[in-house]
Amino acid sequence: MNKIMFEHYPASKLPEDLREGLEKDAKVRIVIEEEPKQLQADDTDRFPGFKGFPSIERQPMSIEDTLAAIRRIKAENRPSVSAEEAVSRIRALRDEWDD
Fold first, then answer.
1. How far apart are CA 57 and CA 48, in angstroms?
2. Dihedral sign for Cα atoms in the order 16, 20, 23, 26
3. Which residues contact 33 (CB under 8 A, 6 or more apart)?
4. Residues 93, 99: Cα–Cα separation, whole Å
5. Residue-wise pLDDT tens for the chain (99 aa)?
């Protein structure tokens, strides 16, 4: 993002609508920044590495689909992990990077 800044710029040189409420001999600081463009689903210019990936249209899940997914996951009966076990696993993974 480009940014242009003017320090001690004479207010008298500003357009009339920007001078409103300022003294004639006032000095101002002007910062001009380009607004970022909105990220579009097909905006591959900003992320060229993703050009080869297929475009996926995602739709929100209905309540029925959400409940069915919850039932399916609960039916798998995965064992629960205690907080201590989870912390231990995370620390082990983190410590791999320290070696």
1. 19
2. negative
3. 1, 2, 3, 4
4. 11
5. 678 999 999 999 999 888 899 998 999 999 998 877 665 555 666 677 777 777 778 889 999 999 999 999 999 988 888 999 999 999 999 988 876
